[in-house]
Design goal:
By secondary structure, this protein is α/β, with parallel strands linked by helices. Helices cover 35% and strands 17% of the residues.
């Protein structure tokens, strides 16, 4: 199979879908890997590294798409790429279809086979291709929140850990999954007063056992969230429903009741955001205010640390990419329920229920 790795063109997306070691592994399986020139530069990988690993360097994004039977990316195709995706071509990347109707309809029109990293799911419900980026995004959510709480950055002027005799920042983390756990742990390490909210009592019991003493757990419901958000200096939204739109747990009314200069970091923005006042931002222009509350809603947070992110992503995606390349997508998805669950749009049909529901489209479960 010919695997194409284009350079990411989304704003400040510095990651690349495959490291040279990943390209070498695919080449060892007899596949041809075509990488766009300078695709790995911002992640610390030169074209020469890919050539040494057995890959071919192509000069343009058009060349990569034209050559590839399977395109491996980090982020979803954006508008300039829509016309490059062709019928029957396998595209393996983060799609987050439930946050973009335009992307969904473009991929339906293309006739491509869209296998989404974020919905590849194990039998136990874990999301192996989302976990590494979620861990990074969670850590960075606390880091970015602390940065934007500084007065010169637009925040209240609060130090996360406080000092003796002065209270630390109050941090509320909504969602106790991978992102929320990582965010709470980093915020706690900075010395903040952290509350983590979740709807699962079992998960809260686990977190109460493993988290530091300055992390408290709280059942997530409308009343509790309203009270916690009102008192918070920093709110981190980390709610996920795989493949579907995130629920709007922080309402516009709740935002109006927050402290002026408080910060919201909405990590769920990839799936539409869990805050009613959130809209996607970029690393170039990451923040905006609503009712005096600073919102940070960058849709590709791990893109800011591409050396770490690219290595972590390849570690997770490569075994699945090898299966797809060795067997072809139909056989690979027939033999692996994990990969089957990754199929979101296939040859003009929406095959993932959450995506169909997000945009009121026909749901056509795929039989293989």
């Amino acid at each position: 199979m010919v695997i194409g790795v284009p350079k990411e063109i989304k704003n400040n997306e510095n990651r690349v879908a495959l490291t040279p070691s990943g390209a070498h592994e695919l080449a060892m399986h007899g596949h041809k890997v075509c990488v766009q020139t300078s695709a790995g530069t911002n992640s610390g990988f030169a074209d020469e590294d890919y050539i040494a690993a057995g890959a071919e360097i192509l000069p343009s994004i058009e060349d990569v798409y034209a050559a590839a039977e399977m395109v491996m990316k980090v982020k979803e195709p954006i508008e300039p790429e829509y016309a490059l995706v062709r019928r029957g071509q396998l595209v393996f990347t983060y799609f987050h279809f439930a946050s973009s109707e335009a992307l969904t309809r473009a991929m339906i029109t293309s006739g491509a086979v869209c296998c989404a990293y974020e919905t590849v799911e194990r039998g136990d419900g874990t999301l192996p291709l989302l976990i590494p980026m979620s861990e990074i995004a969670g850590r960075m959510a606390a880091q970015e929140g602390a940065y934007y709480l500084e007065r010169p950055r637009g925040g209240r002027g609060i130090l996360m850990g406080g000092v003796p005799g002065v209270r630390p920042a109050k941090v509320v983390v909504i969602g106790g999954g991978v992102v929320g756990t990582a965010a709470a742990r980093v915020a706690a390490g900075m010395g903040a007063d952290v509350t983590i909210c979740d709807i699962s009592l079992r998960r809260l019991s686990y977190l109460a056992d493993v988290m530091p003493a300055n992390v408290r757990t709280l059942m997530s419901n409308a009343f509790n969230l309203r009270e916690e958000v009102r008192r918070a200096d920093l709110v981190i939204g980390s709610v996920l429903i795989p493949g579907a739109s995130a629920p709007k747990l922080v309402t516009a009314e709740m935002v109006r009741g927050m402290k002026r200069g408080a910060v919201i970091v909405d990590v769920a923005i990839d799936q539409g955001g869990c805050c009613e006042t959130s809209h996607p931002t970029t690393h170039e222009n990451p923040t905006y205010y609503v009712d005096g509350v600073l919102h940070y809603a960058v849709a590709n947070i791990p893109g800011a640390v591409p050396c770490t992110s690219t290595a972590a992503l390849t570690n997770a995606t490569l075994p699945y990419a090898v299966q797809l390349a060795d067997k072809g997508w139909k056989r690979a998805c027939r033999e692996s329920m994990e990969l089957y669950r990754g199929l979101n749009v296939v040859e003009g049909k929406v095959t993932y229920q959450g995506v169909a529901e997000a945009w009121n489209l026909p749901y056509d479960p795929l039989g293989l």
